[in-house]
Amino acid sequence: MTGIDYTQKIPNNVDLQGDKRLQRALEAWQPNYLEWWGSMGPTDFNQNEVYLRTAISVDKDGWAHYGFVRMPEYRWGIFLNPAEPGRTVGFGDHLGEPAWQQVPGEYRNWLRRLIVTQADTEPASVEQQRLLGHTAPSLYDLRNLFQVNVEEGRHLWAMVYLLHTYFGRDGREEADELLQRRSGNADHPRILGTFNEPCQDWLSFFCFTMFTDRDGKFQLLALAESGFDPLARTCRFMLTEEAHHMFVGQTGVGRVIERTCQVTKEHPGKDVREYGAIPLDVIQKYINYWASSSTDLYGAEVSSNSANFFSAGLKGRAYEERYTDHKALNETYALDRFLDGKLVHEVVPLRNAMNEVLRDEYVKDNQKGIEYWNRIVEKHGLDFRFRLPHRRFNRKIGDYAAGRFDLDGNPIGEAAWNAQVGEWLPTDADRAFVKSLMKPVYEPGKMASWIAPPAKGVNDTPTDYEYVKL
Ligand code: BYC
Ligand code: FE
Ligand code: FE
């Protein structure tokens, strides 16, 4: 079944009606979710109609549905990609065995932990972004923010469905806790570092959707390979939603760059700040900050957890089908570790380096984004070039957290770091300046001083469309 039943309290394509116990349990969680949305989701705007897309089927054209919806009335539901008949486990020790339709008992705890970690990021991001509506640079951007927010809410539903359906009582407890942890709360924080970082201005929001949602893309690609079939199917559908989030980040930062380039050419020799634009080197510092924090989200370079997840067939590699050896048992991975204060070349069993393998794909994808931004600068004939910080730069997780590294990944001392960190990461003054620009622009078609208009509107609408009815 690919069509989605919208007559139900919880829209779904998993025949929820056929399992009354499960349906009741999820319908009991639903008001708690809505209460969380009301208190931790976007502040205000819950009574405004927003031009949102809603999935009406999981087919390719299932996204055709756009309309005005108040966010609390968005039809959050449970949508899985169709089952592939005869699907088998695609990697690890169980290669070729039938994919699991139930949780394999021996892997229950690992699997639950993976699902909870994935789930936790979704509400966290909504919490991080909750104030941004008040300073949106245009109605177009306001609408995109809310689109991202409701879809992250749906991603939480996707994971909660798995917890409730396949993990019994402890799954239900985990689902409740997902509504209790809070981004940035010292006593009860979200699980992963980046999801506790404040994201309170729109340059940060665009960097977040560029770099942090892109971690989402690669983690989902790895989980979409899972031998636990319901997880694979739900992640495959989530990936179709994720593409829009990265579009918002990629083009959002691109439009900020575009605007700065325009101002630079209109007022040669002047500080663009005077004209309400953001200097390119400040944009670069925000890139450095969010790219490095999001690079942490792959975990340690050498990790027995990652080896276990792979061996067990729970979490694969992105694009597993591109590899020839799906067992990865006799292969190795060479990397520069940072041990006792020195970079040391080491060769480790490939399975232990699966976090790094996934991070490699992520870094490659980020690099393409940087090139897109540089084409904008080039088009304007300016000399500035953006760059991706080296993966060792500013890390808090893994080997490199133990040292200091410059943007090229060279180890440096604490004094050198302190002397230069203000050129690499946003300073208080940079943040204060960016914050000073964050004034809402709600007139249809108008843009804030620091951002260029989008190339086109949503779903073939004109860019001065009234995307949010205020
Ligand atoms: N911050 O063996 P290690 C998304 C912990 S984003 C804090 O290196 P492992 C989205 C780790 O939990 C995608 N702690 O790591 C984006 C472990 O803790 P314990 C989210 C961290 O286990 C935008 C310890 O360090 N999905 O969807 O191989 C908006 C040693 O860990 C961090 C997933 O992450 C960190 N950055 O794996 C909305 C997929 N990194 O057990 C949504 C599910 C590591 O010693 N998660 N630790 O207490 C996983 O696959 C893995 O848990 C990880 C790390 C990739 C996160
Ligand atoms: Fe998500
Ligand atoms: Fe996302």
Helix count from the secondary structure assignment: 11
Per CATH, the superfamily is Ribonucleotide Reductase, subunit A
- According to CATH, what is the class? Mainly Alpha
Biggest β-sheet: strands ordered side by side in the sheet: 2-1-7
The distinct bound ligands, ions and cofactors come out as: benzoyl coenzyme A, fe (iii) ion
Q: Roughly what fraction of the amino acids lie in strands?
A: 5-15%
H/E element sequence: HEEHHHHHHHEEHEEHHE
Task: List how many beta strands DSSP finds.
Answer: 7
What CATH calls the topology is Ribonucleotide Reductase, subunit A
Distance between the termini: 38 Å
What would you say this structure looks like, in words?
By secondary structure, the chain is mainly alpha-helical. It has one domain (about 15-470): Ribonucleotide Reductase, subunit A, CATH 1.10.620.20. Helices cover about 45% and strands about 5% of the residues. It contains 11 helices and 7 strands. The protein has a 3-stranded antiparallel beta sheet with strand order 2-1-7. A two-stranded antiparallel sheet has the order 3-4. A two-stranded antiparallel sheet has the order 5-6. Strand 3 (about 330-340) and strand 4 (about 340-350) form a beta hairpin. Helix 3 (about 140-165) packs antiparallel against helix 4 and helix 3 (about 140-165) packs antiparallel against helix 6. It is globular, with a radius of gyration of 23 Å. The protein starts with 19 loop residues before the first helix and ends with a strand. About 45% of the residues are buried. The model has no long low-confidence stretch (mean pLDDT about 95). The structure holds benzoyl coenzyme A and fe (iii) ion (FE) (2 copies).
